[in-house]
Structure formats: C-alpha cells, structure tokens
C-alpha cells in the first residue's frame, strides 16, 4: 500500500450532471426541515423519504437493472449520497442496506437471494442492520461467540449482538456468527454470515439509549432462532473474508467526514458575512480540510470504479475524516458566543448541543481509531 | 510527458542531490553541476514553449517536477524559475533561460521607467541572473524582468533550511523588460503561484519523511524488537501516512486545476492543508527517530527544516485560511456546500 493510491480524480460529467437534479429535489423535499433534524445526518430515520428516493432510482444505483438497480457508476452514487448528506436528509432507514448489504448480497448471494432481497432495497422498502459486535467482542471481532448449529431444517442460531444501529427499525440483520470450532478452524476461520429475518421467533431487540437519550443502537438477543438453509449468505466458513470485503464499503463513503456538516452551516449563518479574523481563519481552515478530504474520498471512489479494493485508502479517509468531524464541534463552539442548548435556543445552539454529544461515536462506529490506524500501519508493512 | 518528467527528475536528483550535496549547498555553495544537469535535461524550461527549448508542459505535468524538488530538497531555484517563466509567457515577455527567480515581497516603485526600492526574501537572489516581479505603475501593475546584477546592494540571508533568501536593493535600475500585468491576472499572481509551488514541495518532503521514518522504525531495535512492532509507533506512522496522502492530493488538485488560470481557491486549500500537515509530520518524524534525527549528521533535518520554512513562505496557513474563510462567509450558509463542490472553478479575491 502506498500514498500513490491517492490519485487526484474528478467526477465524470455524466455523474456530475445528477447534482442539479438531486439538489432541486432536496430543496423541495426538505423545505422547512429543521436544522437540528438535518444534524442527525445518516442517523435520521424516515421510511417515507427512503421510498421517495427509491422511486427516483437513487437507491441501489450501482446494482444491475434486473434487480431494480440503475447500473450507475460509483461516481454517480457518490454525487447522490454526498448531496443527501450535505443537506442533512433523513437517510438512515435505507442507509446500511444501500451502502453495504446490497453489494454484499449481490457479490456473495445466490440468484434466489438476489431476487428476493435486492428489489425491495432499491425501492426503499427493505431495511438492514449489521450484526457484528457482541458484549465481549468489539474491536476483537474474531472473538465472537454467537453461533449457528446445522440442523435438519437449516440452522439453529444462539447468541447476542450489541451496538446494532437501527435494529429496531430493520427487517433484516446480516450477522457474523460462528459455525465452526475456533480451535480447529483458526482465528479467522469457522465464521459465516446469515441474513436473519428479525420478525422470527426467538429474536428480541432492545434499544439502548445513548448519552443524549436518543435510541439509535440496540442489543439483539438470538435465542434458538430457527433459520432456513437459505439464510446462509456466501460460503459456510467464509464469513471473515466476506465481512472484510463489506468493510471496504462501510468505511469508504463521505459519511465518514460529513457527519458534522450541519454545524458548519449554522456557524456560518451565525457568523454572517463579515467574520472577524479568528472566525475567518478557522472557517477557512475547516474549508481547506473538507476540500482535501473530499479529494481523498474521490480518489477512493476512483479505485472502486476501477474494480480495485480500496480498503486501505478508505481507512485513511475514515480516520482523518472522523478526526475532522469530531473537531468541528470543538472548533465551532469557540467561534460563536452561543451556548449549546437541547430545548429552545437558536439553530446553532441546538445543532451544537446535538453534535457535541454525538461526536464521540464518530470514531467508534465502523471501526475505532486505533483499529483503523493499525490497518493503515499493516498496509505500510509495519506489522 | 508527466511520466517522462517524473523519471528524469527522479534520476537526476537521486544521483546528484544526495544528502551530502544538499548539506554542502547549505554552506553557500552554488550547485552548478546540478543546475547544469537540470538545464541539459530540459527541466528548467519544462513549461516554456518548444521554440526556446521547452516542453510547454502544463501545471498538471509540472506537478511531478515540483514535488520531486521537494522530496529531494533540491538546493536550486528550479520551481521559482518554472513560475517566473510561466508569468513571462502569460504577459508576453516570453521565457528566459539561465537562472531565474521570482520576488513577491517588494517596495519597488517605478519612476520614469526606472525602479527603486527593495525586493526582499528573494529565493537565490545572489545566484539568480534574472528576477521576475510585479510592481505598481501609473496605470496599474507591471510585470518586470530585472537583473540582480543591476542591484546596488545585495544583503544575503537564508531561511531556516539554509536556502538563500536575499534582499536586493535597486536604485533607478532599468528593467530588461516591463509590460502591463494582463487583465485577468491578479497583482498577487506570484504569491498564489508560489503558494502552489510550496504546497507540492511540502508534499514531496512529507513523502520523503514518510519513507525515511518507516524505514528507520523497521531497523531500529529496542526491547529486543524493531520499534515499528510497537503500537504506539505504528499509530504515529499511520497519522504520518494520512497527512502525507492529504498533502499530496491537495497539492496535486491545485496543479491539475490550474491549467487555464491559477485555481486560487484550491491553491489556498492546498497551502493550508500542506502547511498544517507539515507541522504534524515534522513532529512525528522527529519523535519516531529519537535523538539521531536531531543530529546534523542524519538527513531528516534536511527535510524537516525545509518544511518549517516552506509552510510560512508565500503565505502561511493562517494567511490562506483567512482568505478562504472570508470567501466562505461571504457566500453564506446556503452557498457553502455549492462552493465545496465547485471549488475547482472558484477564484479567491487576493489582495496584499
């Protein structure tokens, strides 16, 4: 791996042409949508909005047409999702399905699985969550103990997942569980992925309130859940490899540096057109960092469009992006004399209150800072 | 053309501009053989028209030359010459051969066609045969081409990396050429162009620090294993890689977007991103190297001292971020995101 993977790349014209259309759509669809809700970014849930995007052809865009997709380039999808994120559109319902479940099912699923799951994802009707972390397995994902035992009818699933974003709103969870003995199959062997219908008997979902009182993530209990044979996705025992491939999608997008953009908007509005020297300097530096991160992200998209695996470069962008989106509340609370306020207060005060409290999660979800930097170091040949 | 430039300059600088060579140049020795090699291979005139021996390269192609100059700490005004000749082409004076530099910090005034005052902080002013600058004239601004030999006095100075940064005093000196600054060019054109150059040199130096520091961490053993085996070191090197990647793409974007006119919005973003990256990278480079990296003998300082100089030259991170911030606030909250997605086409109002 080397930094030469970051080749300056531009968005092709046919993809750039979508921008005007999506901007006009969002200006209309989000008219009067409050700033604090825009700050929810890809944690804002609105099933109706997701279906609206589906009807526009903006979900599953890169999928083959036979499954309801648009066969669009990664850059076309990039333009749509960065516009959605910049506007603070409520995209959480379909986000994970569109970003990583659909590509995973397309790549590793059987024909029957593709036909069953992909078209409703493209319509914005079917929502997915990711079952990876467990109470005793966070960064050390290979230590999971949830397991599926082969039965005559299919698989019997037992265990527990935690920090599962959107499980309470989702139809399916794609879970990584153990299907083989750890001693026999090696540290990264003996794991498989299943598509779990969350309405099945034995599945219990309990939301966990975060420090702000919001309920985004959940604990999911799996007690003797009986799965059909076709719940297995990909090859038995290949779960680790599949998850690694999935993480390239999970970590490569602009949502890894745009989570706090709503606060830039409210800060600029609060500062006005005549910034003082400090405000000008800090807003300018934020702008430079954002422009550079976006160029890095476009380089990752270029790799995707060339069919390469951008996992290493994506880790660089995610880590640098998380630092950026966590810095924003810290920098911007010093630029405007307007204290954070949860109820009442200005748009800026409310968005500041929300994002200040959310910021710690930015470098936890999708891989912690230390794990990402470890991946980067490995790519550099240091470990 | 880019590949050819890259392999040529890489070969020349690897062969000639060794750490010992750069150290010698810091002792006020003009590196005549390096300059001759660059001239003979067409690098000094890479951007100039073919009829004067150039390759008519665009900034997008020249990027690799400028970055390599930074990567090898080339102790010559190569990048200044590329910029000076670019401006001479833009205004119709035409490219010159020889040793040419640029000046942005000026008190020169023009009276009856003669120039008096100072050019300050001129890169290799003592060695240059020609210097390009922009002066205030009765009608506005002129691009002028001067001979340092015509200076009444030269006060030699060096930046923190020992690179010549001289003051040239002129008293009623006649320029070799003087033409009005073309419409569409800012009087700060050399400042913006210089910021673009330094951003690519910084990216190059960061790349070299990255290589040097990773290699050192793999060789140096403590507690019975290479220090690169320690997570604390790995995490620092990961950040160094991120900052190096950020600096490289920021600088490349500025060059790639400056084909028709200098892309000042992207140049500002590049100078801020690279200057800030320089601060982090020098700190990590020295931290990982330990005491050996702090010695005169080891070559890390040939890069880090240049970064400490270059991040401040042609406008610091603060200078450029303030300009960006003023433009962004002026566009308002609604205008912010469109400005980001159109940043490659945006111009900044620059006034000195």
UniProtKB/TrEMBL annotation, chain B:
Transmembrane segments: none
Cofactor(s) this protein cannot do without: FAD
EC nos: 1.-.-.-
Domain (Acyl-CoA dehydrogenase/oxidase N-terminal) ranges: 4-88
Entry keywords, A to Z: FAD, Flavoprotein, Oxidoreductase
Domain Acyl-CoA dehydrogenase/oxidase C-terminal intervals: 193-316
Enzyme class (EC, first level): oxidoreductase
Pfam family, one: Acyl-CoA_dh_N
Record GO terms (molecular function): acyl-CoA dehydrogenase activity; flavin adenine dinucleotide binding
Coiled-coil portions: none
UniProt family annotation: Belongs to the acyl-CoA dehydrogenase family.
This protein's name: Acyl-CoA dehydrogenase
Species name: Halopseudomonas formosensis
């Amino acid at each position: 791996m080397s930094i030469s993977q970051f080749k300056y790349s531009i968005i092709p014209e046919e993809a750039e042409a979508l921008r005007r259309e999506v901007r006009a759509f969002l200006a209309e669809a989000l008219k009067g949508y409050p700033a604090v809700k825009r700050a929810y970014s890809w944690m804002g849930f609105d099933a109706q909005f997701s279906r609206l995007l589906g009807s526009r052809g903006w979900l599953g865009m890169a999928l083959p047409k036979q499954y309801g997709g648009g066969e669009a380039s990664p850059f076309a999808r990039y333009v749509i999702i960065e516009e959605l994120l910049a506007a603070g559109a409520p995209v959480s319902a379909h986000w994970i399905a569109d970003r990583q479940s659909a590509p995973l099912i397309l790549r590793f699923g059987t024909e029957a699985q593709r036909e069953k799951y992909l078209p409703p994802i493209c319509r914005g009707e079917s929502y997915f969550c990711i079952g990876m972390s467990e109470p005793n397995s966070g960064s050390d994902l290979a230590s999971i103990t949830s397991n599926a035992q082969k039965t005559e009818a299919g698989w019997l699933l037992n265990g527990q997942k935690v920090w599962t974003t959107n499980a309470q709103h989702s139809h399916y969870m794609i879970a990584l569980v153990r299907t083989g003995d750890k001693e026999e199959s090696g540290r990264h062997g003996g794991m498989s992925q299943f598509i779990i219908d969350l309405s099945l008997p034995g599945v219990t979902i309990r939301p966990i309130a975060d420090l702000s009182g919001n309920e985004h993530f959940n604990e999911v209990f799996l007690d003797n859940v009986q799965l059909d044979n076709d719940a297995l996705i990909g090859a038995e025992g290949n779960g680790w490899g599949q998850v690694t491939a999935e993480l390239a999608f999970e970590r490569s997008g602009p949502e890894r540096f745009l989570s706090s953009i709503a606060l830039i908007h409210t800060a600029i509005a609060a500062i006005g057109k005549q910034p003082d020297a400090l405000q000008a300097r800090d807003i300018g530096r934020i702008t430079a960092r954002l422009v550079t991160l976006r160029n890095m992200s476009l380089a990752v998209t270029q790799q995707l469009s060339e069919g390469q695996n951008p996992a290493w470069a994506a880790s660089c962008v995610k880590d640098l992006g998380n630092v950026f989106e966590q810095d924003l509340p810290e920098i911007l609370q010093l630029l405007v004399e307007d204290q954070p306020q949860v109820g009442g207060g200005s748009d800026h005060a409310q968005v500041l209150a929300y994002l200040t409290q959310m910021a710690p999660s930015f470098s936890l979800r999708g891989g912690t800072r230390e794990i990402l930097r470890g991946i980067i170091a490995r790519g550099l040949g240091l470990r | 053309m880019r590949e050819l430039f890259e392999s040529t300059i890489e070969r020349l600088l690897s062969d000639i501009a060794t750490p010992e060579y750069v150290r010698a140049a810091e002792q006020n020795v003009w590196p005549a053989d390096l300059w001759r090699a660059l001239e003979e291979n067409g690098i000094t005139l890479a951007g100039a028209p073919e009829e004067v021996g150039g390759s008519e390269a665009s900034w997008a192609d020249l990027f690799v030359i400028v970055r390599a100059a930074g990567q090898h700490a080339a102790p010559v005004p190569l990048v200044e010459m590329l910029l000076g000749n670019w401006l001479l082409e833009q205004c119709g004076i035409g490219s010159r051969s020889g040793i040419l530099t640029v000046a942005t910090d000026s008190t020169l005034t023009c009276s009856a066609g003669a120039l008096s005052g100072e050019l300050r902080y001129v890169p290799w002013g003592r060695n240059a045969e020609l210097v390009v600058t922009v002066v205030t004239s009765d009608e506005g601004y002129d691009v002028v081409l001067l001979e340092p030999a015509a200076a009444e006095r030269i006060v030699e100075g060096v930046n923190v990396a020992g690179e010549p940064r001289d003051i040239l005093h002129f008293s009623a000196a006649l320029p070799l050429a003087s033409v009005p600054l073309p419409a569409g060019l800012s009087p700060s054109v050399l400042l913006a162009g210089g910021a673009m150059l330094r951003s690519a040199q910084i990216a190059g130096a960061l790349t070299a620090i990255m290589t040097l520091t990773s290699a050192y961490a793999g060789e140096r053993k403590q507690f019975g294993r290479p220090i690169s085996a320690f997570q604390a070191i790995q995490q620092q090197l990961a950040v160094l890689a991120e900052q190096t990647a950020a600096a490289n793409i920021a600088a490349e974007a500025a060059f790639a977007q400056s084909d028709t006119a200098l892309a000042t919005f992207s140049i500002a973003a590049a100078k801020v991103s690279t200057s800030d990256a320089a601060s982090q990278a020098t700190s990590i480079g020295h931290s990982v190297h330990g005491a050996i990296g702090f010695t005169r003998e080891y070559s890390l300082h040939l890069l880090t001292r240049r970064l400490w100089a270059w991040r401040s030259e042609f406008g610091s991170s603060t200078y450029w971020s303030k300009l960006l911030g003023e433009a962004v606030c002026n566009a308002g909250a609604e205008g912010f995101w469109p400005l980001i997605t159109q940043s490659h086409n945006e111009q900044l109002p620059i006034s000195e």
